[in-house]
Amino acid sequence: DATLAAGHTLTLALNVSPQTSSQDITLFNAASAENIITKAKGTIINPSLRLSNRLTDEWLHELDLSYFTNRAPSDMRRLSDYFAPASANFESLNHTVFKSEQFLLRDRVSFTKNLGACQIRPAVSFTYRNFKQETRFLHNTYSGGLLNSSSSGYSKQKGKSLVLTPAFNVSYRNAFNIGG
Predict the structure, then answer these.
(1) DSSP assignments along 77-106, one per residue
(2) Mean pLDDT, to the nearest integer, of 45-52?
(3) Under 8 Å CB-to-CB from 132, ≥6 apart: which residues?
(4) Among 23, 124, 129, 143, which is least packed, fewest CB within 10 Å?
(5) What is the pTM of this model?
């Protein structure tokens, strides 16, 4: 937090979360053995900024900016050995990349009025959200070491939203706080 002037505060934050997972499973039955190996690795990054302005003792203005990004590639290998009847081994390889981005802007103005032991707080918030998600995948199957089939795909989703939200809170000392 940095105080810019009396009643004006700027807050910067950076959240980083590495994501890693792996799995190795072997399944047996009378006719086959199957080995499944999955690995995924990615990082979530979320920088944010908040500017809080105490305009008067009763008026507060808050502006929040936030960006979220995640890129998570994953791989899965499935190897099947068939015992009876004897046949070629079967192998399946999947590679997927998931990407997500989101920008969020929230602008909030609130008014606080103390009426004896009661406090009222009307507010209005404006929120803008812009997001994009992409998924790419590649799937190959092999039989007896030879490529049997191959497929790939791509999907993309994009969206924007604007929301105006009024709010009103009433509280009485520490006994209750009703808001909506």
Answers:
(1) EEEEEETTTT---EEEEEEEEEEEEEEEEE
(2) 95
(3) 99, 100, 101, 102, 156, 157, 158, 159
(4) 23
(5) 0.71
